Every structure is written in C-alpha cells, then in structure tokens.
Amino acid sequence: MNMQQLVQAMQKAQREFNKEYAQLEAKEFKVNSNGAVEVTLLGNFTLKEIKILDTDLLKPENAEELCDMITIAYNNAKDQIQKESDELSDKFQRGRKGLTF
Predict the structure, then answer these.
(1) Which residues are CB-contacts of 13 (< 8 A; sequence separation ≥ 6)?
(2) pTM score, whole prediction
(3) In terms of C-beta density within 10 A (0-12 exposed, 13-18 middle, 19 or more buried), how is residue 73 classed?
(4) Contact partners, residue 90, CB within 8 Å, separation at least 6
(5) d(CA 28, CA 23)
(6) Exposed, middle or buried by CB within 10 Å (0-12, 13-18, 19+), for 61?
(7) What is the DSSP string of the chain?
(8) CB 49 within 8 A of CB 65
(9) What is the tens place of the pLDDT at every residue in 41-90?
(10) 21, 38 in Cβ contact below 8 A?
C-alpha cells in the first residue's frame, strides 16, 4: 500500500468513526432504578429526562432516597454510554493496526 492509499484509508476510517460516534451521541440511554426512577441520557452525556415512577419518593421524608435513586440511575446510564464509546473506539483501533488518525 502506497502513502496515498494509506492516507485515503485513514480518512475513510476517520469518516466512518465520526459517523458512528455522532450516532452514539444522539442515542438515548434509559435506565430504571428499582422501578422508582427512570433517567434518560443522550450518548453525549446530556441529561434529557428524569421520571419519578414511585410518587411516594416525592414526600419530604423520602428526599434522600429520591436523590439516591436518581444518582444510581444516572451513573448506570453513564456507564452504559462509556461502555459503548469504548467499544466503538476499540473497533476502530483494531481496524487500523496501530496507526493514529
């Protein structure tokens, strides 16, 4: 493979990566925490929505538990996004045999 072909292959891989990464960033990740709270994050880690499914958590005496459920759901969604992001990066790292773009 000559240098021009190598550059073209790298540019193509970069375009494919950018396309797939943009799809990941737009994807919604919904996570439910113990049937009490549902959190929706976009793949770019933007918090889109919080749903309180268990209205008992809205009582003042349950405020701490509500906060905990939101935190758990958010962290689980964040972990899912990170896992998919890592898998996408790994896919392109393996495909380019150690070359950087």
Answers:
(1) 92, 95, 96, 101
(2) 0.81
(3) buried
(4) none
(5) 10
(6) exposed
(7) --HHHHHHHHHHHHHHHHHHHHHHHH-EEEEEETTTEEEEEETTS-EEEEEE--GGGGSGGGHHHHHHHHHHHHHHHHHHHHHHHHHHHHHHHHHTTT---
(8) no
(9) 999 999 999 999 999 999 999 999 999 999 999 999 999 999 999 999 88
(10) no
> Sheet of 47-52: strands edge to edge?
28-33, 37-42, 47-52
Residue 10: the pLDDT is: 87
Identify which of 33, 43, 28 has the alpha carbon closest to the alpha carbon of residue 83.
43
* DSSP β-ladder status, 37-42 and 47-52: antiparallel
- CB contact set of 50 (below 8 Å; sequence gap of 6+): 37, 38, 39, 40, 70, 73
Q: Which residues, 6 or more positions from 86, have their beta carbon under 8 angstroms from its beta carbon? A: none
The CB density around residue 46, as the number of other CB atoms within 10 Å, is 9
Which pLDDT value is given to residue 95? 61
